[in-house]
Amino acid sequence: MGTDTDGKRSKASPKPGTAALTPAALRRETERVDRELIRLLNERAQLGSEAMRAEAGQHPLAETSGSESAEAAPPVDGPGLEALLQKVAEWNEGPLADAALASIYRELASGWRALSRKVSVAFLGPAYTYSHMATLYGFGESVEAVPVGSISAVFEEVNGGQSNFGVVPVENSTDGRIADTLDMFTRLRVRICGEIPLRIHHSLLGSGPRSGITEVQSKPQAISQCRNWLARHLPTARLVEVASSVTAAQTARQRPEVAAIAGVQAAAHYGLDVLAENIEDNASNVTRFFIIGEESAARTGNDKTSVMFEVPHKPGALADAMNIFKRAKLNLTWIESFPIARPEGGYMFFIELDGHEVDTRVARAIKALAKKSIRLEVLGSYPRAEPVG
Question: What pLDDT does 19 receive?
Answer without folding.
Answer: 63
